[in-house]
Amino acid sequence: MTAPDGTARDRLWLGRFGERVAADWLRAHQCKILAKNYRNQRRGRRTGEVDIVAREQRVLLFVEVKTRHEASPIRPLDAVDKAKQRLIERGANDWLRRLGTRDLPWRFDVIEVYVAEGKPPRVNRVRDAF
Q: Can you tell me whether residue 69 is helix, strand or coil?
């Protein structure tokens, strides 16, 4: 992906772009965004993170967003390895702890965002990804 001035976009920009696309996609599919980039802190260090916390009707969603170029040989879902899952689970557990209950339906989703120069992004939602 390139900027209007012709310079290449970096990975940080691409990740933020993908998260904006995913949040817009969720809203368009009747989900309410509760938080973006939720990070819990314990003793000054990051112990959990969730890209998007949303609600779809009565279900609480903890969403990981992965963005890749359309030509990438690696599927975005494959980047959500066990270590990343643990980080997301810790963030979700902290969110549930702050709510004061675990007695509500919730799940982990992954939204894959595929980008290609000059084309609109393509979104694939993997429900109950792990």
A: strand
CA dihedral (48, 54, 60, 115) positive or negative: negative
57 Rama class: left (phi>0) / alpha (psi -120 to 50) / beta: left
pLDDT digits (tens, 9 = 90+) for 85-112: 999 999 999 999 999 988 999 999 999 9
Q: Is 47 helix (H, G, I), strand (E, B) or coil?
A: strand
pTM for this one? 0.90
Give the amino acid at 100.
G
What is the rounded distance in angstroms from the CA atom of residue 89 to the CA atom of residue 111? Answer: 16
Rounded to 5°, the CA angle 100-84-50 comes to: 40
Assess contact for 73 and 93: CB atoms under 8 A. no
State the DSSP code for 88: H
Domains of the chain are 11-126 (3.40.1350.10)
Q: Name the residue among 111, 59, 72, 114 with its Cα closest to residue 88.
A: 111
Residue among 130, 129, 121 nearest 16 (CA): 121
